[in-house]
Fold this protein.
Amino acid sequence: MEFTAQIIANYLGGTIDGDPDVKVTTVAKIEEGFPGALSFLANPKYEPYIYTTKSSIVLVNDDFVAEQPITTTLIRVKNAYEAFASLLDLYAQSKQPKSGIEQPSYIHESAKIGADAYIGAFSYIAEGVSIGDNVKIYPQVYIGPNVKIGNNVTLYPGVVIYEECIIGNSCMVHSGAIIGADGFGFASGADTNYKKIPQIGNVIVEDYVEIGANATIDRATMGSTILRKGVKIDDHVHIAHNVEIGENTVMAAQTGVAGSTKVGKNCMFGGQVGVSPHVKVADEVKVGAQSGISGDIRKPGTILLGSPAIEISKERRSSAVYRNLPELMKKVSELERTVQELLQKLDNK
Amino acid sequence: MEFTAQIIANYLGGTIDGDPDVKVTTVAKIEEGFPGALSFLANPKYEPYIYTTKSSIVLVNDDFVAEQPITTTLIRVKNAYEAFASLLDLYAQSKQPKSGIEQPSYIHESAKIGADAYIGAFSYIAEGVSIGDNVKIYPQVYIGPNVKIGNNVTLYPGVVIYEECIIGNSCMVHSGAIIGADGFGFASGADTNYKKIPQIGNVIVEDYVEIGANATIDRATMGSTILRKGVKIDDHVHIAHNVEIGENTVMAAQTGVAGSTKVGKNCMFGGQVGVSPHVKVADEVKVGAQSGISGDIRKPGTILLGSPAIEISKERRSSAVYRNLPELMKKVSELERTVQELLQKLDNK
Amino acid sequence: MEFTAQIIANYLGGTIDGDPDVKVTTVAKIEEGFPGALSFLANPKYEPYIYTTKSSIVLVNDDFVAEQPITTTLIRVKNAYEAFASLLDLYAQSKQPKSGIEQPSYIHESAKIGADAYIGAFSYIAEGVSIGDNVKIYPQVYIGPNVKIGNNVTLYPGVVIYEECIIGNSCMVHSGAIIGADGFGFASGADTNYKKIPQIGNVIVEDYVEIGANATIDRATMGSTILRKGVKIDDHVHIAHNVEIGENTVMAAQTGVAGSTKVGKNCMFGGQVGVSPHVKVADEVKVGAQSGISGDIRKPGTILLGSPAIEISKERRSSAVYRNLPELMKKVSELERTVQELLQKLDNK
């Protein structure tokens, strides 16, 4: 696709400083610009780049005043960042959506599939599956028996959904994510051999959830493992059996939540965080990367860091002392010596 | 499936308090019960729920005495938990096992496949593969050249087994697990480029092993990476080349064991544990979540925590002091001041 | 394959002590040897094994002098380790490379595929894809629209490459690795719902890169996520959007690098390391396992450990004191008591 500055300015309701006929085909960061790209300037920190950028068009805020000559074409809009984001959306949506059923694919005769579906080659849709409208199933996806999928869902290549799981509307699941594999449950017997505890529950993923590549959401022993509306989890995140993650909680890559833990809504977890089993985490809790949560977090909005995690400013103070522990130990040794000398002096007086 | 209280009581050798004709189709926790579900009460902590549960049937111990009116139907058995577990097994086994070979699938003419196999569509079985009886291979599985698989094995969708690997009897491998990919071995040359060291060994998985979703077990450089009988590893666990994991050792999600390390039998590792290369870990060692093992653990039964991991009670005491390090530092500073004053006072006397 | 000692000695330019007709079919470590295997002895530490090994042939250095009777056949070469490595290479290369296009596979008519390709069954090659010569694509691989792949590339079963990504020459990608899934980018709106930021960039993998099983390399928001020439990343490694990893940098398993971070060249990261977003790491930096990098590392060659990571010798000293924190606290308490007593004594004088 190719757009002129004029077309973009018209679409955004902006005004042009420069060449209305200059054309762009893609977008770029202002500091990485090149001819044919459109960029934006919102953060004043990046203003120096507007005098040197090679991008053909830059979106700026209405009130931007240039302090040096500018060679790129400007489009002035009310809010440059929002205008850029709306163009990004337009760009992303402009890709012709896939549709139709590619061959060979395996669709059980009892499966129900809604309107405007795309089902890629080598995908497998088992008996009793029900799929809503406008669902895009890329190649090599597996959907197990009796799985229910809502409308406007995208499943990228290689996604696996085990039997009986439920996926809401407007969800996106990236490649290699496994939804509904058995929870890790074994009973130790009289000998040292473990006996598998059947995992007969399922996974429920509510609306507007995004699941990253190679993430794993295990099915419940009984009942359901639940990702509430709007949850976003990154690549390699592991959600164990019977866990519940509250609405709009986000978790960065490689974080793991152990069995039966309940995490509140609007929480933010950094990467590589671990949460112990059977823990309750309140709403709006923020957890720094690599932290370990080993007990209930009862106060909403708590900000935590460390393993075991404590209140972040406390952790930072402890961590600062930790870096100087050898000096602290030396001070204590010197104190001990001085106090010994004092004791002797005192005895001698 | 649908069962009456009478049928279940007969099967379990129990007695009924209530309606012998009430029907159930599934199971639920007593606190999450609903009409049509069967629950159990074993832990006295949950007793209050028996007066409010919506489950249609609850299994209780023979000696249970109700202290309030009960509306659900009770089945009295010797051990309510064990009776429930046996019903769970029955429920899990009652699912009609898959069988037959779905099309399209790719089975090399030289592959040998035992009795009662299920081979799902889009699965690939290479030359020289040998597969035992009663093996269930779900769709989109890859089994490389000369792989040997025992009896009663289940491979879920998307499992990959590289060439020459050996899987024992009664193993279960969950979706996305990769067995036998190359170990991470490179030699640094004269320049800064690395030269790949060919990884020509294999992986041996003994009997009764369960491997979680998206786990990776790398093949040995030479010889074998080995998971001994009864090992259970959770989702995202990484086992590097030439590692050996002893009998009945269990490892929770996202744990990683580096190259050539030997872990003993009956060990228990929490989630996100890391073990350094070329380390020996004794039998029955327990390691807390997020710990790091960087040297040999020689004493069987040691319980470890922390990174680097130390004996758990020692780590907990250190960790408790760590949380109060700023206070400790303040005390030391105050002591220094007091001691200075003391020195001056003494000099003045 | 089967080789006599004579054939191997001729190939390596070595001389034989023992039976020139003895045959081997595989290789083994000298301490794990068995009849039919070839081993080597380079490290004097392993010399005792040469008197007891069951390997049929052992490569030794020219100047090796036996101190006890030897039953195995020796081949004397200039450098036993290098000779062994060259045999390993030969052994690995001797496997007949796969070629041809297996059915069923899905290859869009607009895709261009070079000479000597292998395309396994159930692989999917989308529109506009361009693939170089001598590329081996195992079964169940997905290659999205407009992906470009160089020469001599191997993609193992189940690899997924999203649209528009670029893979250089001589790369190897192991099973389950996902290249080009969406970066984890969401904007928080007026309410608590997140709005997805379209990820319209791509991933560029340069020449001689190896990517481990189940690794994830996310596509850039705009521009490219880049793995430079010679990068080696192990299983389960996560590289977030807009990250750049410098030439010949190696990262061990389960390490994660957050968004927009730039890592220099010739760096070495241990397993389970985490790096914060928007960080710059200099060249030749070494990072110990489980470390967390949360700020810029400006000095090339720095060696780091801990979370947050500090200079390794500093971390080790702090860690040593940490293990004895309870004793340190006890000392401080005793000091406080002694100083109090001193104060009283002094007042009494």
Notes: Chain A has four helices and 40 strands. The mean pLDDT of chain A is 94.
